[in-house]
Amino acid sequence: MSSPNAAPAADTSAPSSTTKPPQAPPKPLWRNRPGIRQEDWSQWTLPPLDQIESSFLAQQYIQSLVRKDPSAIKDIVDVPEGQDTNLWRYEHLRQICLELNNLVVMLEPECTTETCPEMKAQEWLYLCAGHPNPQQCPALDYIVHTLDSATALLNSQKSFYSRVSIPEGSIKHFANITRRLYRIFAHTWYQHKEIFQEFEVETHLYARTYYMIKYFDVMPDDALVVPVEACMTDIPPLEADSSESGE
Amino acid sequence: MALVRPAMMTERKPLALPPPVVFSPRPTHTTLATAHSNDSLPPVPLPPTPPPPQAFDPTAPLPSLADLRARLSSASEEPPAQLPIVVGTPADTGHAAAQTRPPAVPTRKAARYDFDYADRDAFETEINEFYNFQDHQQMEDGRQLFEATFVGQWKAAKSSRRANYVAGLLEHMELRDAELRYKAVKKLLYISQGVYGEAASQPEHVELIVANNQVLFALGTLEHIYAGFKVASQTLDVVTRAAEPTTLERQYAMEQAISEVTAHMCLLGMLIEVHFKDETFATELVSMNPPVASFLFTLVDQLAEANRKRYPVKKLLLLLWKVLTVSLGTSEQLASLKTASRTLEGLDPFDENTFVKSTPQDYHNFHLVVATRYPAYVTPNADSLCPPRLQLVDPIPTCIRRQLQQAGVLQPFVSTDTLLPTLFDECVDLYRKHNYVSLASVQIARERDRMDKEEERRDVDGAASELEDVVEALDDEALSASHLGSERRRDVFALRPSVKRNAKRIKKQDAVGLKRVEEIYRHLVPQMPVHVGMLIRLLYYVNLGAANSVPSSGGGSKADGDSASTPGGDNTADDGSLAGMSFAGMTPDQKREHLMKADNNRHREVVTKAISGILVLLLKASKCNHALKSEYIAQLLVDNNCAILILKMLSTWLQSPSANSSPVTPGPPGQQNTSGGTSWAERTAGAPPRPPPAVGLGMGALWLTKKDEPKEIDFFHFARAKDPFSAASEITPTAASIAERETEEKAAATSPATPLGSAESPLHSPTGMGGPTSTPPPDIPSSFRNFYTSINLLRILQKLTKRKTHRVLALVQWKASAVLKRAIKVSHVGIQLYALKLLKSQIPYLGKKWRSTNMKIITAIFIHLRPCLRDEYLAGDVDVDVDEALAHEQRLRAMIASYHAHRYPEASGEDGAAAENGVGENGRAASPTHSHVDELELILSISRRGSYEGASDPQMNRFAGGSGGSGSGNLFLSSAGGAYEPLTLDPNFMENYEEWLRMEVYDSEPSLPSPTSSSSLSPPVGPADGWPHEAEHHWGDPIAAEQHEPTRSLFSATRRFSKEMLSDDYDDSDWTWDADDESTAAYRVGDPDADEYDAFHAPGGGDSVWADDPAPPGDMDDPSRAWATTLPMLDSGGDCYYDRPHVDDVWAENRDDQDEASAHSSESSDSSDGAGSADSGVALFDDLAGTDESASGKKTERGGSSVYLWPDEF
C-alpha cells in the first residue's frame, strides 16, 4: 500500500521551485498499516532483489514470492544470484516453520491422543527429540515439540546470531531440522490425508519442501517416505539430475 | 670514615680476589615438563683437576714451564673428555687416583624409561585400549550390515552420497524401535571405525578413521548419538531396576540394552578421539543438555545400583576421562586458564622459571620475629606484598609462636643513618624479590572476608542480605559470562570494579574456558560426593578389591565369550594348564583364555588409568577456576580414603622385580597387576619357571614396562585380520613371542631380555653397564598407561596433602614414606619428583633419625625441588600441634561448605544430604523430612562438633540451617559457629535425657577402625568372583555391605594423632603396606595357607628362600648396608642362594628389596647377615652381564648401580 504511494509521493516531491534541492524518494515501507482492508493485505510488490536494502532481505523476498504465487516453486526456492546459499536455506527453513504452524492448526481437531497416540508415519515410529531425553510423544505433541524446538534453534543466539550470515558450525543443523519437519508431513499424509491435501492445495508447502530437499540434496531418496504425488503439482526439474516431475 | 687509626679497626677493602667461579649447578628445579628432557641431569661441572701424574721417568728432561702451562690449559679446557681417555690408557690401569675421582658423566646410568608425560597416549593405542575382545562381534555385525546396504565402496563414493547415507542413518536413530536404532548405530559405528573392511593397511585405516569421523561430526552425529545414548541408558536403567532380573526375557532385554549402550559408547569414543583438539567439538560437548561430562557422571553413579554386572565400565570411564579432558582442557589450556584467573585477581601470571618462592605469610613471620627480637628495627609489614585490602596472612601464626616468645634483644644504640641494618634490608629485599602470591590464597582470603561479613550481617539482622553479597562476591562466572551474554541471575550482579577492569585483559578463549569449567562444575556439584565416592570405589575394586584376591572356582571363560573370568581364577586355572607349555601347543580354548586374561589385565589397567586421569583433571581444572572448588573435591577424596588407597596401590605396584617374577598365583592382590605380563613368560619350551626377563630393571619394573599383549585383543589387529573369528583358533604367535622364544633358547638365565622380549624394543645390551665409554643403554619401553597412572596418583596425593598439616600428619601415621621411598627408586624423574615432593612435606615430622638415615633423599629434594626462601623442613624439631592442625582442617572445611552454600544453594539440598549419607559418611540414614530438627541427631552432633565430622555433618547443618533461617536441609554449614544457636528441646526429652544419653550414647560406641586395618576398605564380599568387566560380579553385595557397616573414612580415625608417632623413633624400614592387610596374611611363612605362595616365589620348589632365611635384613635404609660396595653376599647366609644349581640363581640374589622381604616374612628383624640384599632392587644390569654367574663379580658391582637420581658415590 505504501509502495504505490511512494511513487506518486516521489513525483509530487519533485520541487517546483528551482532552488529546492531534489529530495530523495522516501524509502518504501512494505508494511500493513492500521486500518488496512483485507483485500489489500500485504499487497505490495517487491522490486528486484538487488535494489532492496534491508536486513531481512531474504525473508521479505521469499515471503513476497510466496504470497504472489505459492506454486511457483522454482522461483521461490532457487537461490538467486548473489545470495548466500546458507542464508537462503536458513530463511526457507524459517518460512517453512512459519507456515507449518497453519498446518498444526488444521490438524488440531483431528490429531488427538486417542487417534494418534504415537508419532507414526507408515510404520515408522519416531522418538521426539525435543526433550533432554528423547521420548515418545503422541503425534500432535511430537509435532508441536518439534516445531517449537526447530523454531527455537533457528532463533537461538548461539547458533544463528546473525540474519545476514550463517556461522559454519550451524550448517549441520539444517539437515536435522529438515528431517524432523519432514516427518510432520509424513505423518499428516499417512494419517490425515484429507487435511494434507486441503493444506497442500492452498499453500503448496510440501511441494516446495520437497523441491528444496532435492535441490539442496538434504535427504536421501529412501528417507522421503511420502510419495511424490503428494505434491499435487508439477515439481520443476533439477538441473543436474534426472527430473522429478510430479504427478 | 674510620675514627680510630689502628689498622684493625678501620674498614678495609676486602682482598681483591677474582670472583669465584661457580661450579654449582645453575639453580633450577625439576618439573614434570622437564622431566623427560633427553639429557639426564646436567652433569655437575667439576673444577678442572690436573691430570694424574704420569709414571715418573727420572731420566726424562724436566718439562719446561711452557709445557706445563700448555698441559694445564688443555686439561682445564676439557676435563670431562679427558677422563675416559685417562682412565682407559694403559698407563693408568689400576691407578688409584683415577678411580677415586668421580667421573664427570655418570658411568653407569640406569636405563631410563622412555615415558613422556602427556595427556593421552598415542591415537592408535587409545583406540586399542578402548575396545574389548568381546566387542569384535559387534564390529563385525556392523560391517555386515553396512556392506548389505551401501552399494559400492565407501572410499570411492561421492561425498554427497556418503552424506546422504549418513543422514539416512541418523534418521533411523530417531526411530522408536530399538532394533532399528541399534542397526543404524552399528552401521554408523562401522563407518566411524574407518570402514576397515576396505582399508588395505593400518595407516590407511587410521586415515579413514580420521576422515570418516570428521565427516560424521560435520553432519551432526554427535547430537544424535548423544540423544540415542541417553535413550539407551535410560532403557538399561529401567531394565536393570526391574523386579526380577533373572527371567530370561529380562536378561535378554538387559543384554540388548547393554549392547546398544556399548555401541553408542564406542561411537562416541571414536568421535572424541578424533576431535580431541577441536574447539567446536569441545563447545558442543559442553553445551549439550546436560553437558556430556555430567551425564556420564550420573551414569557412573548408577553403577552403584545392583545388576550392573556386565556394564561396560571401562568404556564409560574412558569416555568420561576423554570428555573431561576435552571439556575442561588439556594441560596447556589449563595452564592458560590459571593465568587468566590470576589476571582476574590482579595478580601477575606465574613465571614457571622462578626458582625460589616465598609467600607473604613467610614474610609476615619474618617481620613478626624481627619485631619481637629486635624491637629497634622496623621492617615494613606484609601489606606491601599482598594485593590491596586483602588480608592474606594469618596475623599470629602458631608455627612461630615459640620464637615470638623470646625476649627481644636489648640494643645499645640505633644507627641513625639507616633505619635498618643492611642485613635486615637485604632480607626484606629478598623476600620482596621472591614474593609469590598464590591465586588460591587470594581467593580463600576473599572468601573468608565474605564469610565474615555474612556472619556479621547475620548477627545483625538474622538473614544474609543478598544485595551486599552481590556487590562483594567475586564472580568469575559472572565475569566470563559477560563476555558471552549469559543471563543467569548472578551474572547481573555488580562486579567489583577491579575485577571488571581485569576482565578485559584476559583472552576470550580463556574466558570461555573458565566458563566451561564453571558450567561443568555447577552440574556436578549437587552429586559430587556420590561421584567422587563412586570413582574411589571403582578404583579400589579394580585394583585391590577383596574379590580379586580370592580365586574363583574353575576360572575359565564363559562359553559365549561375553564375560571374562576373574583374574584370580584365570591365574589359577592357567597356571596349571599353561605352565611350561609352548604357545603353539595351546588348544584354542586355552588360547582364548589367554586372550581373555590379557584383555582382563589390560582392562584393569586402563580403568585405573582413566580414573586417575579423571581425578587429576577435576582437581586441576577446578583449581584454575577457584581454589575452594578444588578443595571441595580434595576433601571428598580424602574422606573417601583416597589417600590410603593410593598408597596401597603404589605399594603393590612398586615392588622390586625379584619378588614378582614368577608365574602368578592368586595370592596377594597386588600381584594381579603383573600377571598379564608374566603369563607370557610361561611360554617357553624350556624348564618351568624361568627367570623373568624384567629382572634387573629396577623398582616397579614389571608394572611400568611396556607389556607385550597379544595382538588379538587389539582393535587394529582385528580389523586387519582376514578372517577374524577363525583367528581365534589359530592365533599366530606374535612376532614378539617368537623372538622371545628364540632368546630363551639361548643361554637362558643370562640374556638380559627386554621385558617379554618384545621384538621392537631393543635388547638391552650388557655393554651399557660396561664402562665409562659406553653409551647409556637404550630406553626401556614403558607402559604408558601404568606410568601415567602412577604419576597421576602421586600427583593426586600431593595435591591432597599439600600444605595441609593435618593430612600430612595422616600420611606420616600411615608410614607413607616407605612407599614413597620405593617410588624414588624408579628410574624416571616424573615419578621421583612427586614422591620427593610428598616426602618433603613429611620430613618435618619424621624425626632426626629418619633424616640422618635418608640423606640421599634429602639431597635429591634439594637438587630437584623448587626451594622456598625459608625452607624449614629440615629445621629440626618442629613443634607439631596436632590440635592446631585439626582446627585448621576444620576451618577449611567450613569455608568450603560456606562457599558452596553461597554459590550453589540449590545443590545443598535434600539430595545432597541423602547422597552423602548413602556414601557412608556416617551410617545414619538421612531423615526423610528435614524440615524439623531432629533432637537426637542434634545432641549427638553437638557432642561431635569438636571433630572434623561435625563440620560436614548433615544433621548439624540441618540444625544450623533450620534455626539460622537459611533454609532447611542445608547440606553445608552455613556458618562455622552455627551449633551454638539457641534451641528449644522437647520437654519430655529434657526430663529424660539422662536415660536417653545412657542408652544411646554411652552404651553403643561407634567403633573406630584402627588406622592400620584396612577392614573398612574391604567389606565382606559375596560370591567369590573377582571383578571382571562383564561377568558375574555382584555389585550389589559390596554396596549393600557398605551400607550396613558404614565405611568410616580412615581419615577420621586419625583425627587425633598421637604425639609419639612423631617422635624420633619414626621408623619406616620395617613397615610394609601388606603386613597389616588381612588379605595378605597368606604371605607369612609358616602360615599354612602360604604354601601356594611359597610355590610362587620359590622357583625351584623346595624350601623357599625365605624359609631358610626368614629374616633378611630389615633395615634397608641403613646406609652402611645399602651402599657398601664390598658387602659380599657370599658371606653369611649367602650360600643358601648359591648352592642351588638353578638357573634362577641370578635373580634369586636380586630378590633383595626389603619391602618384599619384610612382606613375605613374619619378622623383619634386623639381621646382620648383610645379605647385601640391602641394596634394594635397583637397576642391576651389570649383574646380568655376560654369562658370568659368579657371585663375586656381581657383588662388587652391586653397590655401584645407581638409581637415576642418586649422585654417584663411587
UniProtKB/TrEMBL annotation, chain A:
<feature type="region of interest" description="Disordered">
    <location>
        <begin position="1"/>
        <end position="34"/>
    </location>
</feature>
<keyword id="KW-0479">Metal-binding</keyword>
<feature type="binding site">
    <location>
        <position position="187"/>
    </location>
    <ligand>
        <name>Zn(2+)</name>
    </ligand>
</feature>
<dbReference type="InterPro" id="IPR036703">
    <property type="entry name" value="MOB_kinase_act_sf"/>
</dbReference>
<dbReference type="Pfam" id="PF03637">
    <property type="entry name" value="Mob1_phocein"/>
</dbReference>
<feature type="binding site">
    <location>
        <position position="116"/>
    </location>
    <ligand>
        <name>Zn(2+)</name>
    </ligand>
</feature>
<feature type="binding site">
    <location>
        <position position="192"/>
    </location>
    <ligand>
        <name>Zn(2+)</name>
    </ligand>
</feature>
<dbReference type="InterPro" id="IPR005301">
    <property type="entry name" value="MOB_kinase_act_fam"/>
</dbReference>
<keyword id="KW-0862">Zinc</keyword>
<feature type="compositionally biased region" description="Low complexity">
    <location>
        <begin position="1"/>
        <end position="21"/>
    </location>
</feature>
<protein>
    <recommendedName>
        <fullName>Mob1/phocein</fullName>
    </recommendedName>
</protein>
<feature type="binding site">
    <location>
        <position position="111"/>
    </location>
    <ligand>
        <name>Zn(2+)</name>
    </ligand>
</feature>
From TrEMBL, chain B:
<feature type="compositionally biased region" description="Polar residues">
    <location>
        <begin position="657"/>
        <end position="678"/>
    </location>
</feature>
<feature type="region of interest" description="Disordered">
    <location>
        <begin position="551"/>
        <end position="585"/>
    </location>
</feature>
<feature type="domain" description="Far11/STRP N-terminal">
    <location>
        <begin position="110"/>
        <end position="394"/>
    </location>
</feature>
<feature type="compositionally biased region" description="Low complexity">
    <location>
        <begin position="1004"/>
        <end position="1019"/>
    </location>
</feature>
<feature type="region of interest" description="Disordered">
    <location>
        <begin position="1090"/>
        <end position="1121"/>
    </location>
</feature>
<dbReference type="GO" id="GO:0007010">
    <property type="term" value="P:cytoskeleton organization"/>
</dbReference>
<feature type="compositionally biased region" description="Low complexity">
    <location>
        <begin position="1159"/>
        <end position="1177"/>
    </location>
</feature>
<dbReference type="GO" id="GO:0005829">
    <property type="term" value="C:cytosol"/>
</dbReference>
<dbReference type="InterPro" id="IPR021819">
    <property type="entry name" value="Far11/STRP_C"/>
</dbReference>
<dbReference type="InterPro" id="IPR012486">
    <property type="entry name" value="Far11/STRP_N"/>
</dbReference>
<feature type="region of interest" description="Disordered">
    <location>
        <begin position="738"/>
        <end position="779"/>
    </location>
</feature>
<protein>
    <submittedName>
        <fullName>Factor arrest protein 11</fullName>
    </submittedName>
</protein>
<feature type="region of interest" description="Disordered">
    <location>
        <begin position="657"/>
        <end position="694"/>
    </location>
</feature>
<feature type="compositionally biased region" description="Pro residues">
    <location>
        <begin position="42"/>
        <end position="55"/>
    </location>
</feature>
<feature type="region of interest" description="Disordered">
    <location>
        <begin position="1004"/>
        <end position="1032"/>
    </location>
</feature>
<dbReference type="InterPro" id="IPR040185">
    <property type="entry name" value="Far11/STRP"/>
</dbReference>
<feature type="region of interest" description="Disordered">
    <location>
        <begin position="1"/>
        <end position="62"/>
    </location>
</feature>
<dbReference type="Pfam" id="PF07923">
    <property type="entry name" value="N1221"/>
</dbReference>
<feature type="compositionally biased region" description="Polar residues">
    <location>
        <begin position="27"/>
        <end position="40"/>
    </location>
</feature>
<feature type="domain" description="Far11/STRP C-terminal">
    <location>
        <begin position="421"/>
        <end position="993"/>
    </location>
</feature>
<feature type="region of interest" description="Disordered">
    <location>
        <begin position="1148"/>
        <end position="1210"/>
    </location>
</feature>
<dbReference type="Pfam" id="PF11882">
    <property type="entry name" value="DUF3402"/>
</dbReference>
